[in-house]
Structures are given as structure tokens and as C-alpha cells.
Specification:
The chain is about 25% helix and about 35% strand. It is α+β, with helices and mostly antiparallel strands and about 675 residues long. The N terminus is likely disordered.
Length: about 675
């Protein structure tokens, strides 16, 4: 059927409304994009006709960080204030470190300070709902993903200021003598088209976002105290300007020079110690009848062989909407460098994906100047748009042709903004075979859980590229890693002591120039017990021995850190018995007072405060990560509940006027 737009101009308006709304509203988008009945997606926050004051209850978030050796202790504070005239219930989605062991929470209202309890997630939810309905102030901390948390605070009364404080610890990483601490800034908008394939609740991805360029109404601060047993050098942040106050050569305090819009990206701190030394040794701690230990050994010097074997490379590049603009520009820079470093004897191919996928060639190409130029041209032609269908892209990548006698490296380049990480890990675990899968995370607030975990399952390394300078460094690191492992055949041996529950259970080959870390438990130790770590490097066998009696016994966080390491493995290693896996996670969470996939923290103020029986539900809008465009979310529109009303009005108007035109027949 053909409709004349000139004869029926309102048809054009209706058609435009349908197209415009469908790009934004989850239900319509799903029907058009995939035929599915419903799809989840984030949406833009637009203030209505009210003052909006009670719609933005989170006023301040601040972090106090203490760094000591390989350990980081963080106190994260969130201040909620109701400046409106009616009670509110607030929900805030925020990121967490992929290595964080969240082990405590308190809620403070005026003079009252309430310690949170750790409970199974369903029991914690029931406690929260009952307290909310009874008119009590209550807060609930839940894990949506290992690096995404939700804070819910109910019955915040007009004029109330509620402070929620959560604490966590983590083990820091170091590479080439450089230590790195990352404090995540904001949760990037997740693609909702794959939500049907993920376990658990995923409604959180519908959280509203501020439009690109909007100022963040939440004040943000971070204060760091770095205390080291050795003099500190090379202190810098590539993401934020710092105010530095040196106490002495081994102690320094840091704060942000400019806190405006500082929370729209990860805070990354790098530092070195004297002569680029790595703090190595053995640490132990006894808790509730169990003994825990952590071994940190310095990495061996890398020896690069003169003849690096030829390899196949398959670059899998994300060109979806969230990559448009700055992330894709950074990707183009990175890909130009990666392709330019290939040897003539190598072969390569590129696969670009968004809602669908396209390849440079059906078969691997020789890394000739002509073919590399062709690949760079195709890369530079990408503009970014559409969904992030990573799973089918990896399916296609694994099925593509490669030489059985040549090692193939799959290199994934993405911001990681997907919902269904678990099935991606399972796919990689089942289909990897002789491949290695490296992962490059692109952007200022990437999904580190996906990037780090997929590289771990892929027996390779993860890189996070925040800008052009990082593209240079990380491409050079990648070339080093693939040349030869720094250490292979790594194993732990013990004399006079029994070791068990080690994490990692099997230490993989070490590709990076970073220390070997093993955390575990021990029992039946004699006075002269010792633990030896061995491995093979380019210089032959390497050995590090530690006397258990000489180990420091001062770090009380080792039990929680061990449990967190065990959780990391349970989250990414596929397990067919879901119920057994759930029980193991719940046991870890309850025994070690840890936030997990199946345990939550809940704090209840027993005072009856809201006697009205009503409270307004508010979702705190998030800023878009720095460099991420509006294409990651959709078009700035009114709240979703207003969309169908507007569409209905347009449709009614169209049919009424069309009916009038039919009856207005000239005599």
C-alpha cells in the first residue's frame, strides 16, 4: 500500500513519532529490532514541571582510600538528602572494583548509626520490603554484577540526611614496577538486547542517564593516603589532576584538584617505589581456626627470543552506538598501531560487530602493507551505531578459518557494555581450544568485569585503554606479551606444612611483567615450614623460597581477600549445577560477611518514621561516562511513561483528521 505524504501530512508526523519513540522506548525498540516482546534499555532523565529537588536525593559521594603495600582499604560514603515535601525511596546504581571484597555497611540518620547485617539476597530483600512498608528507614546494598552495585534507601523523610558508608578491601596489581589503583567512577549504559540471556534481575540496566554534557548534580571527592615501606616515586594520575601533600618520602596524601564532573570516569593512580622494587614476601593471618597466607614474588626479567614464531591474528572490534565518538577514535588509533606491528610472516583478519557483523576477508590475509592498508581503511570508515551483539560476533570468530599448525590470537576490542557476560564466558571456555583471547577495554569507564574475566577465561591478558597515550603503551605491551611468556610451569611446593584451597587453583603461564600472587590456606605447620614457588623463564628455572615463621601476621583482611578470590573463579568458570554453585556462593558470603551475587547487606532503623503510608520512588540518574555519546542510550526524551501518551495523542489526531478529510467531499 502506498500513502501520499502530500495528501496526508499527518501520516508523516505519525510515522516520525513511531520511529522516534521506537528508538527510545524499550518495548517498541524490541518489536522493531528483533521481534521480541520486550527489551531492556536505559533512558534519559528529563526533569518535569516540578522543582526536581526531591528527584535527585544523592547529594555527595566520597571515598577515603588507604594504600599500603599490595593492599587497598576503601571507605565509600554516600549522602542522601530529601529536599522535597514528601517521603521518598531512592535507588542508586554505582560501580565497584572487580577485585573488591565488600565486607561492611552502616547507615546514619542524625545521631542514629545502624550496622548492616549480611543475609541471603532473598531474605535481605524481604527485610527491606517489610521495613519500608512499616514506615521505617532502611537501606539495602545488592550486587547486580561483580562490578555493579545497587543502593536502595527507603523512607527518607523531608529534611532528612541519610549517610550510607560501605567498606571494602582489595589486592592491588603491579606491572613493570608500576602499581595501579583504580576507583571506578560510573556504570556505563548497558545494551539491553541480550538481557534475556543473563541470569538474575536485570531491570537495573533501565536506569536513567543524564544527557551528554549535562553537569553531574552529585558532588564527588576522593582522598588517598599512600604509606609505603619504601620511598615512593613516579606518582601520577592519567585521569584526574591531583593535589599532593607529602608527609615524608614514604607517605603522601592525595586529593582532587577539580572535583567538578570528576565522577564521570574511573580514577586511576599509578606509582612506583624506589628502584622500581616490588614488595614481595609471605603474609599470613589466623581467623576462626583457619590459617591464611598470601605469597607475592617478583617477576623474572623477560627474555624475548630472536625468532618469534608466525601467528594468526583475528581482531574482533566493537562498533556499536556506545563506541561512537571518542571510544571509536581511540580504537582506530589502537588498531592502526596493532596492525602496523604485524610481521610479514603473520596472517590476520578483522571482524566488526554491532547488531550484526562484517569481516575484512572470508579467509586470513598475509600481513602485507597492502592488506594492512586495506584493513586500516575499513577501520577508519566505521562510525558507530546499533546494539552490542558480542555473543554472535564471538561465535562467528571461533568458526572462522585458521591454520591448524599456527597459534591464533583473538583480540577483542570493546567497551564491554553488555548484560549477558556469563554466556560469553561459557562460549569462550567451550570454543577457545588452541586460541588465546586478549581483551582491550576502550573508554573512561569500561566494563572491567567483562574485559578482565574474558581474558582470564581466554588464557591471555586484559588491557584498558583510556585515551591516545594509553593506545601507544598498551599496543607495545601486547607485542611484548605475545612474543614469549615471562614464566611458565608455575607451581607451589611446601615442606613441613600442608597447603590447600589455593587461588588460583592452577597458576597460568605469566605473560605480563607482574608479580606472581597466590593466596590460600595452610595447616599442620612445623616450626621450620617453608613454601617454595618455582617456574621456568627464558633464563631457566626460577625459585623463590619463604619461611613460614618469618611471615608477617598483621593483615586481618586476608580471609575476606581469599574469599573474594574464590568468588572471582566461581563467577567466571562455567558450572552446570546452578544450585550447588549458588550454595557455595551463599556460604562464602555469609561466612566471610561479603557482598556477593546471592548475599546482600541490609540496615534497618527500628524507629517508625513514615506514618503517611506513601513514599515516592526515585531512580538517581547517572552521568554518561566521559567520551560516551548519547547514542549509547537513545534520544533525549520525556520519561518513558509519557511516551505512549504522546504517541496515542498523535495517532488519535491523525485518524480524526483523516476521517474529516474523507467526509469533506466537494459538491
Amino acid at each position: 500500500m502506498c500513502v501520499s505524504i502530500r495528501k496526508h501530512p499527518h501520516f508523516l508526523i505519525t510515522l516520525f513519532a513511531l520511529a522516534f519513540f521506537s528508538g527510545f522506548h524499550p518495548a517498541v525498540a524490541a518489536a522493531i529490532d528483533s521481534g521480541a516482546p520486550e527489551s531492556l534499555s536505559p533512558y534519559f532523565f528529563v526533569e518535569g514541571t516540578d522543582s526536581g529537588e526531591d528527584r535527585l536525593p544523592l547529594k555527595k559521594t566520597s571515598a577515603n582510600v588507604r594504600l599500603n603495600g599490595f593492599f587497598a582499604s576503601v571507605k565509600l560514603s554516600q549522602v542522601y538528602r530529601n529536599e522535597g515535601t514528601q517521603p521518598i525511596n531512592a535507588t542508586y546504581i554505582f560501580p565497584g572494583s572487580t577485585r573488591a571484597a565488600v565486607n561492611g555497611m552502616t547507615m546514619t540518620i542524625g545521631e542514629r548509626r545502624i550496622m548492616a547485617e549480611i543475609k541471603e539476597k532473598e531474605a535481605a530483600r524481604q527485610t527491606f520490603d517489610e521495613a519500608r512498608k512499616a514506615g521505617k528507614s532502611v537501606s539495602l546494598l545488592s550486587q547486580k554484577k561483580p562490578n555493579v552495585f545497587s543502593m536502595e534507601v527507603a523512607n527518607i523523610m523531608p529534611g532528612d540526611e541519610v549517610t550510607v558508608l560501605l567498606t571494602y578491601t582489595e589486592i592491588l596489581g603491579a606491572e613493570n614496577g608500576v602499581y595501579e589503583f583504580v576507583f571506578p567512577g560510573v556504570v556505563g549504559p548497558r545494551y539491553g538486547g541480550d538481557a534475556v540471556h543473563t541470569a538474575g534481575q536485570v531491570q537495573w540496566i533501565q536506569n536513567p542517564y543524564l544527557a551528554e554534557g549535562s553537569p553531574d548534580p552529585v558532588s564527588y571527592s576522593i582522598n588517598v593516603e599512600l604509606i609505603s615501606p619504601l620511598p615512593i616515586s613516579g606518582l601520577e594520575s592519567s585521569t584526574h589532576e591531583l593535589v599532593t601533600q607529602w608527609q615524608d618520602k614514604q607517605s603522601v596524601k592525595l586529593s582532587l584538584k577539580d572535583a567538578s564532573n570528576a565522577g564521570n570516569r574511573d580514577f586511576i593512580l599509578h606509582y612506583r617505589l624506589r628502584d622500581e622494587q616490588i614488595l614481595t614476601g609471605l603474609t599470613r593471618f589466623e581467623s576462626q581456626g583457619e590459617n591464611y597466607f598470601l605469597i607475592v614474588s617478583e617477576p623474572p626479567k623477560r627474555v624475548v627470543p630472536e625468532q618469534i614464531p608466525s601467528r594468526d591474528y583475528l581482531f574482533v572490534v566493537d562498533v556499536s552506538g556506545s563506541m561512537a565518538g571518542f571510544p571509536l577514535d581511540t580504537t582506530k588509533d589502537l588498531m592502526t598501531r596493532l596492525l602496523g606491528n604485524l610481521k610479514p610472516s603473520d596472517r590476520f583478519n578483522t571482524l566488526f560487530f554491532a547488531g550484526g557483523s562484517a569481516v575484512l576477508s572470508e579467509q586470513p590475509l598475509a600481513a602485507t602493507p597492502q592488506n594492512i592498508k586495506r584493513a586500516i581503511k575499513m577501520m577508519n570508515s566505521q562510525r558507530g551505531g546499533g546494539g552490542t551483539e558480542l555473543y554472535p560476533a564471538l561465535q562467528r570468530a571461533f568458526s572462522m578459518q585458521s591454520d591448524e599448525n599456527v597459534s591464533r590470537n583473538i583480540v577483542l576490542v570493546t567497551d564491554g557494555y553488555i548484560s549477558a557476560e556469563d554466556r560469553v564466558f561459557q562460549l569462550v571456555d567451550k570454543q577457545l581450544h588452541r586460541n588465546n583471547l586478549f581483551a582491550f577495554g576502550i573508554g573512561t569507564s569500561v566494563n572491567r568485569f567483562l574485559i578482565e574475566s574474558i581474558a582470564s577465561v581466554g588464557r591471555a591478558e586484559a588491557f584498558v585503554v583510556t585515551g591516545g597515550a594509553d593506545a601507544v603503551r598498551k599496543s607495545e605491551q601486547f607485542i611484548q606479551y605475545i612474543s614469549a611468556p615471562a614464566l611458565t610451569s608455575i607451581r607451589l611446593e611446601a615442606e613441613g606444612v600442608e597447603l590447600y584451597d589455593l587461588e588460583p587453583a592452577k597458576v597460568p603461564d605469566m605473560l605480563a611483567q607482574r608479580p606472581v600472587m597466590i593466596i590460600g590456606k595452610y595447616r599442620n605447620a612445623t616450626n621450620d615450614a617453608n613454601i617454595t614457588l618455582t617456574g621456568v623463564s627464558g633464563q631457566g628455572e626460577q625459585r623463590w623460597s619463604f619461611q613460614l615463621a618469618d611471615a608477617q601476621s598483621t593483615d586481618s583482611t586476608l580471609p575476606q581477600l581469599w574469599a573474594r578470590k574464590r568468588l572471582e573463579r566461581l563467577y567466571v568458570v562455567p558450572d552446570d549445577n546452578e544450585e550447588e554453585l549458588r550454595e557455595r556462593i551463599v556460604e562464602l558470603g555469609l561466612n566471610y560477611s561479603l557482598l556477593t551475587r546471592h548475599t546482600s547487606f541490609v540496615a534497618v532503623d527500628e524507629a517508625l518514621r513514615n506514618t503517611t503510608g506513601h513514599a515516592r520512588d526515585v531512580k538517581q540518574p547517572l552521568p554518561l561516562p566521559q567520551g560516551v555519546s548519547n547514542l549509547a542510550v537513545g534520544r533525549p526524551m520525556p520519561e518513558p511513561e509519557l511516551l505512549w501518551t504522546g504517541l496515542l495523542v498523535l495517532l488519535i489526531t491523525f485518524f480524526i483528521r483523516r476521517g474529516k478529510q474523507r467526509h469533506a467531499i466537494p459538491a
